[in-house]
């Protein structure tokens, strides 16, 4: 006796087929044109797509940042993710000064274990890259099931690493089978521009964007790519926002280098003019890199369509306007960076991508699930619908229209950067390892049902 999802259209990164799917226990055990009901529990998916559960490769849950802690933790953030069709998150364990990578992972397990409603894996976001920390990388890969590390080229005097450190880490990581991720913005340039703006009394949210120009992202992206090229290492560039950075990735890939890029929903549908919203509402869009001129959106869509950007993360990092974003009421540089995006990641890409004719269904699945799973060593257990894989399945109803709003979202935060947007398509049912966790508007899963997923070493996936 299993669960039979009947009458839907199964979408993977390669195919769109009308088929029934049979789940037994935690796995998919059969996919066929027609499967007999005989005693199975039948789920009607008529008129719906079956997508592999979303894999969000970029989240910050329960993370101390900018003098406060993100509004969503593993309990609220993963539930909101589930409502949006995401069944696995790869969260960034923050490594702090003076501690070890293992300390960071111990802390992150404590934050997630027993709370996460969906499956989770970790990257480490390295805050203090000393020699001992570099030496720890092979052991973390081997023993902890964590195979990717994020370094910062921005946030000077805090998280920023210099070129020597980045280069050394790229070599160590490549040898250990790990993938280095970079936050690519030139932190030295930004530091000068921020200080000059503040000295001129330019304190409003819009100066966040004006002091972090796209050239600073393009330059850092090009530099990181060159360092990876010399090191003979693969590289993953997180949250790509602009033509300058995206073109650098395309150029590198034309040279045959294993360079990968991620963008996020906010950079596709919000733009620099959102910072002009009055009464400090612009602060809800303060994130790094910042929102860009609208002309960049078409560039990013083109790169997603051509798979020159292969991955789609939310960069979920939620802060309340009240009490959190307000820390920077009189100084934009003190506004905690980040926005709530975990819940609407798939809806935004589906509506503005698939419905508006930018992306095929297969590319939507590749970006939201398959490619992140491949890049971070979770495929094929995660990232597809196939026999023997985890039965993480979203029954997506493409006929429902809704308006995104803070009034109805499930994230634990007082603002939405997508407020008022009309989107088509919503999960009707969400299954995680064969268990129904979302039934329409109702969460039917459990806190702590999420399991930690060990990531395999990076292997040159031809994406
Ligand atoms: O503004 C952002 N993106 N906050 C989260 C941290 C990061 O840099 O990814
Ligand atoms: Zn039948
Ligand atoms: Zn970043
Ligand atoms: Zn981030």
TrEMBL record:
SUPFAM superfamilies: Composite domain of metallo-dependent hydrolases (SSF51338), Metallo-dependent hydrolases (SSF51556). Its cofactor is Zn(2+). It comes from the Bacteria. Its EC number is 3.5.2.-. Carbamylation allows a single lysine to coordinate two divalent metal cations. InterPro entries: Amidohydro-rel, Hydantoinase/dihydroPyrase, Metal-dep_hydrolase_composite, Metal_Hydrolase, Metallo-dep_Hydrolases_sf. Residues 49-436 form the Amidohydrolase-related domain. It holds the Pfam family Amidohydro_1. The keyword Metal-binding applies. It is an enzyme of class 3 (hydrolase). One of its GO terms (molecular function) is metal ion binding. The modification N6-carboxylysine is found at residue 150. GO terms for cellular component: cytosol. Keywords: Hydrolase, Metal-binding. Belongs to the metallo-dependent hydrolases superfamily. Hydantoinase/dihydropyrimidinase family. This is D-hydantoinase. It comes from Sulfoacidibacillus ferrooxidans. The lineage of its organism: Bacteria, Bacillati, Bacillota, Bacilli, Bacillales.
């Amino acid at each position: 006796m299993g669960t039979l999802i009947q009458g839907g259209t199964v979408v993977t990164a390669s195919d769109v087929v009308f088929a029934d799917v049979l789940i037994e226990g935690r796995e998919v055990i059969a996919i066929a044109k027609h499967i007999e009901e005989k005693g199975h529990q039948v789920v009607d998916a008529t008129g719906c797509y079956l997508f592999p559960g979303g894999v969000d490769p970029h989240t910050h849950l329960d993370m101390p940042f900018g003098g406060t802690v993100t509004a969503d933790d593993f309990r609220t953030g993963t539930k909101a993710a589930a409502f949006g069709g995401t069944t696995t998150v790869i969260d960034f364990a923050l490594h702090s000064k003076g501690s070890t990578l293992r300390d960071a992972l111990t802390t992150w397990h404590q934050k997630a274990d027993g709370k996460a409603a969906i499956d989770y894996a970790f990257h480490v976001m390295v805050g203090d890259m000393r020699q001992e920390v570099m030496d720890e990388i092979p052991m973390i890969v081997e023993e902890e099931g964590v195979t990717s590390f994020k370094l910062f080229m921005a946030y000077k005097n805090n998280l920023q690493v210099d070129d020597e450190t980045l280069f050394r880490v790229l070599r160590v990581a490549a040898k250990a089978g790990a993938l280095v991720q970079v936050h690519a913005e030139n932190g030295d340039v930004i530091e000068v521009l921020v200080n000059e703006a503040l000295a001129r009394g330019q304190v409003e949210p819009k100066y966040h964007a004006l002091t972090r120009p796209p050239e600073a992202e393009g330059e850092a992206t090009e530099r990181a790519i060159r360092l990876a090229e010399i090191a003979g290492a693969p590289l993953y560039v997180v949250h790509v926002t602009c033509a300058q950075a995206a073109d650098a990735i395309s150029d590198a890939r034309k040279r045959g280098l294993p360079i990968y890029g991620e963008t996020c929903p906010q950079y596709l549908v919000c733009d620099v003019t959102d910072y002009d919203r009055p009464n400090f509402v612009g602060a809800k869009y303060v994130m790094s890199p910042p929102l860009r001129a609208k002309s960049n959106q078409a560039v990013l869509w083109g790169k997603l369509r051509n798979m020159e950007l292969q991955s789609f993360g939310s960069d979920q990092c939620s802060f309340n306007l009240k009490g959190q974003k307000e820390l920077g009421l009189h100084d934009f540089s003190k506004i905690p960076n980040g926005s709530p995006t975990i819940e609407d990641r798939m809806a935004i890409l589906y509506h503005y991508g698939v419905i508006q004719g930018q992306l095929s269904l297969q590319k939507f699945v590749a970006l939201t699930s398959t490619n992140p799973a491949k890049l971070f060593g979770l495929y094929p257990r995660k990232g597809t619908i196939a026999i023997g894989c985890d039965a993480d399945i979203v029954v997506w109803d493409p006929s429902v229209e809704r308006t995104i709003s803070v009034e109805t979202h499930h994230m634990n935060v007082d603002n939405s950067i997508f407020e008022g947007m009309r989107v088509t398509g919503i999960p009707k049912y969400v299954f995680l390892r064969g268990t129904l966790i979302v039934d329409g508007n109702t969460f039917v899963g459990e806190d702590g049902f999420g399991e930690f997923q060990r990531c395999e070493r990076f292997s040159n996936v031809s994406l």
